[in-house]
Design brief:
The chain is α/β, with parallel strands linked by helices and 319 residues long. The protein binds flavin-adenine dinucleotide (FAD).
Length: 319
């Protein structure tokens, strides 16, 4: 039986939901033994929910060299040591901001092949799928090595539950901190409480939003939906939103279950960043706007009329 490692990301509410798709991908069809690595000391608290997705072994990862939380180098060194210690053939994680950083460092230390932003993985065949050229092609890439390291695009794989009995193992990696990097402060991005790249629902405002303060109507709706707020490049270039909110070819790549685009024409470059969304809803005043040819549901209307009504209806449903 193969041994697969999964890097778990946690937030204020415990294990981030987007991890469950990664665990489902790690399980694949061979039912390997999964070691889920928790780096922030919350392994015991994570055990139950991870076990409901088939994780039998939750590893509380620490390092002899000190506190993992403030040193990306120490985290990567501990993770790389654990991959060797548990004899893992693959390490998977999220291609989030944190995952891209940590998986890349660990892969370099392991001298392992790495692919980020994968849409799928076949661990038996050691292949991953990845979209290229703004989503126009999907390449299947073979990784030659042992172990291999893959970052999966958040929400690209449907999580499937597989309840089992979980246990926590402690592993203190015999590694020291090189002292080259230290995280001093972490700031919340402008897209709201929910991280844009990992959100299940995104509501985006394009050029007609017309002023930074007008994003407030999207934020109010987003708060009720538990959504993140995005922007088009036209809106970002006009100074209505920061670049951290931009979705698209030169912004963030997202894959939510529901994408509500308000005042977007439907440009190729915007779609390059969100075309893998499961359901796309468009609000546009122009019935001939290209986005209506690319969405699942279209509303021909003014976003400044539709969004407040949607917010009110959602509020009523909640109360
Ligand atoms: C190399 C390159 C990279 C790029 N990268 C990106 C990227 O990462 N992300 C990105 O978004 N773009 C990117 N672009 C820009 C892209 O080509 C488009 O210019 C941009 O996406 C258009 O933004 P928009 O849809 O908000 O604005 P517009 O194209 O101006 O469309 C606005 C739409 O809103 C509708 N509308 C007007 N008023 C209202 C209203 N009150 N209510 C509802 N609808 C209304 C209009 O009918 C129109 O269809 C890139 C371009 C290049 C060349």
């Amino acid at each position: 039986m193969s041994n697969i490692g999964v890097l778990i990301e946690t937030g204020d509410d415990g294990v981030k939901e987007s991890n469950f798709g990664v665990i489902t991908a790690a399980r694949g069809s061979d039912d390997p033994e999964i070691h889920a690595f928790v780096l922030d000391g919350s392994a015991e608290a994570c055990k139950g929910v991870l076990a409901s997705y088939g994780v039998e072994k939750v590893v509380a990862l620490g390092a002899d060299g000190g506190d993992l939380s403030s040193s990306p180098d120490l985290q990567a060194a501990a993770l790389a040591a654990a991959v060797g210690h548990f004899n893992l053939t693959a390490l998977l994680g999220l291609s989030s901001a944190a995952g891209r950083d940590l998986l890349a460092r660990a892969a370099a230390m392991l001298d392992a092949p790495l692919v980020q932003d994968c849409l799928g993985v076949d661990l038996g065949a050691q292949t991953v799928t990845k979209s290229h050229f703004s989503g126009k092609t999907v390449a299947t890439i073979k990784l030659n090595g042992n172990p291999i390291v893959c970052g999966l695009r958040p929400n690209s794989i449907e999580p499937l539950s597989a309840p089992c009995e979980g246990s926590v193992i402690e592993y203190q990696a015999p590694v020291q901190d090189g002292g080259k990097l230290k995280i001093q402060e972490t700031k919340q991005s402008a897209s709201g409480a929910v991280d844009l790249a990992e959100a299940n629902i995104i509501i985006t405002g394009g050029r007609p939003i017309a002023a930074p303060e007008n994003y407030q109507i999207l934020r109010e709706c987003a708060q009720i939906l538990g959504a993140a707020v995005g922007a088009s490049r036209a809106a970002v270039d006009a100074g209505f939103a920061p670049h951290s909110m931009q979705v698209g070819q030169t912004g963030k790549t997202v894959s939510p279950k529901l994408y509500i685009g308000c005042g977007l024409s439907g440009s190729v470059q915007h779609f390059a960043g969100m075309k893998t969304s499961k359901i796309i809803v468009a609000v546009n005043t122009d019935k001939d706007a290209p986005i209506f040819g690319k969405c699942d549901y279209g509303i021909i209307a003014d976003l400044f009329e539709v969004v407040p009504v949607l917010t009110e209806v959602l509020k009523e449903q909640q109360s």
